[in-house]
Amino acid sequence: MLKYESIAQDIEAKIVSGELRPNDRLPIMSELCERYGVSKITVKKAMDILVSRGLVIKRRGSGSFVKDVSASQIDVSRQDIAKQLAGFSGEYSNVEVSSIVNDFSVVTPPDDVAAQLRIGPNDFAYHICRTRLADGVPQVVEYNYMPINVIPGLTIEHVQSSVYGYVEGDLGLTIASAHRAIRAVMPTKQERLWLQVPPSMPLLEVKQVAYLSDGRIFEYSVMRHVGDRYVFYSISTR
Length: 238
Prior knowledge:
Elements: H1 3-17, H2 29-36, H3 40-52, E1 56-59, E2 63-66, H4 71-77, H5 81-84, H6 87-91, E3 97-107, H7 111-117, E4 125-134, E5 137-147, H8 156-160, H9 163-170, E6 175-185, H10 189-195, E7 203-212, E8 217-226
Antiparallel strand pairs: 1-2, 3-4, 4-5, 5-8, 6-7, 7-8
Helix pairs in contact: 1-3, 2-3
């Protein structure tokens, strides 16, 4: 875990435990730097995480304060986009996660996918299709494309376990952000079999373009979640 993430986690724990109460003013930047032994940039990144989670609010000229939110809202904030960026294994870290690999191949992706990945028409990408299960229950079908020149050395063993774990743990890259489009769709015949759902069950489709911290696109994916087995959390800030 990076230092700014551990700082954010520590302050969040104080908010959850009640040590920091709603409307409490947080220490000023210099005090936090001294307390955690880090730079102002690191503290700012930690505060940005807390703001994005809806736990802290910044007031111009006054400082940063604990946001007045209920316990249930805090629970939701802990399931925010940062956790969803950890991938399926990260989202379902408290249960047994498994994968059924429906396809793992190297392809020249369709033109629309190549455009999303910002690669040429003759460049190669991995194509991964997996059914992801939590405690043995199918939750989502994932269709992923990853440029080989950005994510080298991916194997079936990584695909069977955690691709994001390989990206960050083995390659040492940092997953930074994702742009998403979400809509409801009906399952295909094949998806009904993979997810064990009736024809009338809608799926929550999440199309995603994911970026590394250096700005490179490393993934274009389409994820189709079972409608009544998944909640997508989002906190809007201004």
